[in-house]
Structures are given as C-alpha cells and as structure tokens.
Write a structure and sequence with these properties.
The chain has about 240 residues and is an alpha+beta fold. The chain is built from seven helices and seven strands. Helix 5 (about 60-90) packs antiparallel against helix 6. InterPro entries: T4SS_pilin.
C-alpha cells in the first residue's frame, strides 16, 4: 500500500504539471513555499508554483522524496527504540532465567540491526538527492558543512549550496527563492501570463516558448544563487495559458 501511495505522488508530480498549468489553485499563500497545513506533510517545502499551478521543478520532486523518506525513517526509528525497550525489559526481569536473557539479547540484536538500517537509510536519502539533482553524492563542499533543517535553532543556517533553512528552520530554501518569493500574474483578455523566479538547469530547460510550456528568460539569469553547478541558475520563469 505504501508503494502505491508513493507511485501516486510521483505520478502527480511528474505527469500532471502541464495539466496543472490551466489553473492557479492558490492553495499555498502564506509563505514563499507551501506549508504542511496547506499541502500535507509529504509535500511541505515545495515551491508555490508547484503547489498552486503544477509547475514543479526537480527540486520540488526531490523535496517530496526527502519528506517521504524522513517520514518512513522516523517510523522505523520509533520501532527500533521500542525494540530496545522490550529487550532491556526482558533482561531486567530475567531473574537468571536463560530463556528471558536469550530473548532480551535477540531483541537487542534486532534493534541494533534496525538502527544501522535507519542510519544508512537517512544517509541514502540525501545521497540519492545529491546524485539526481547535482550528479554527485556529496552534499557539502570544501568550505561548508550543511545541516538538516530541523527547527528554529537552525533558522538561517546553510543547509545546501547557496541555500539556508527558512520557514521556522524547517525548509531548506535556495537564495534564489528567498530573494524572489512571489510570482506575478497578468491577464489580457482570456490569456493569463504567470512570471516568477526559480532555479533552472540552463543546459536542459527551454529558453523560448514552446506550445505554452514553461520557459526561462536568459537575460534575467544569475549564478551562485542555487544549489548545483553554474549551469543551475536563478532565472525568471514564464508560462501562459488560455482560460
């Protein structure tokens, strides 16, 4: 069942963006990114363009991957802790009973294996994000060490290349999105045009309009404001649709 839910989320993020361009749902309004109370725990942190209009970037898709991974890892971590408690209980009340001692040791062994799985799963989530988004496993460079956005204590701390923790310390957001949090919407007759800024892979993203698909304006692009190499730049994104 979890696999089915996961596939549904991926399908919605990858195959429905163009359908989402036909309307602006205005689900996300209170911050520069979508909050948990607006889109749910798995999609919190995605851009407003993705949440409202289906204009999702690779960064938005990876945000969902990381959210789902953290949720699953959290559940496994809770189970591991419970197993440690049960194992310790059996050993404390064993009273020299070899069977209880043996059972307690079994629980402790299983818990230790589970803890190792949790640790490697957590590392694997961020390694996968690095490979898919930046082509590299490492999420740090020679000068910086990044933190996980886990609450108010890390607000404003570097969480990725050219990114800091925002939204109360729970969202890792690029400097690009922080500098350009809002999009503009203009209407002329039945034609609606939406413009905003986001991180764009200039090697693959279209730089001219093609059948109403989103495209970026090369003259607006700035380097060193986004995660990734210099091909990933902060650019004005534009798309239009007929209502």
């Amino acid at each position: 069942m979890r696999r089915l839910y996961f596939l549904i989320v991926v399908f919605l993020l990858i195959f429905l963006p163009q359908m989402g361009l036909a309307y602006d749902s205005r689900i996300c309004q209170q911050s520069s990114v979508c909050l948990e109370k607006e889109v749910g725990v798995f999609m919190q942190g995605i851009s407003k363009g993705c949440g409202n209009s289906g204009n999702c970037s690779l960064a938005d898709i990876m945000t969902v991957f990381v959210n789902v991974g953290n949720y699953v890892v959290g559940i496994i971590g809770g189970i591991v802790l419970l197993m440690y408690v049960i194992g310790g209980f059996f050993m404390l009340v064993s009273g020299g009973n070899n069977e209880r001692v043996k059972k307690g040791k079994q629980y402790m062994t299983i818990s230790t294996i589970g803890l190792i799985i949790v640790m490697f799963s957590y590392l694997g989530i961020y390694a996968l994000r690095g490979v898919l988004q930046y082509g590299s496993v490492a999420l740090t460079d020679a000068k910086n060490e990044y933190v996980a956005c886990s609450g108010p204590t890390v607000e404003g701390t570097s969480c990725d290349l050219n990114s800091t923790c925002t939204n109360g310390g729970y969202t890792c957001e690029s400097v690009c999105r922080q500098n350009h949090p809002d999009s503009t919407k203009t209407t002329s007759g039945n034609l609606t045009i939406i413009r905003g800024y986001d991180c764009v892979d200039t090697d693959t993203q279209a730089s001219s309009s093609s059948e109403g698909n989103p495209f970026y304006n090369p003259s607006t692009c700035q380097k060193k404001l986004c995660p990734g190499d210099d091909s990933v730049q902060c650019c004005q994104i534009e798309y239009s649709y007929v209502e």
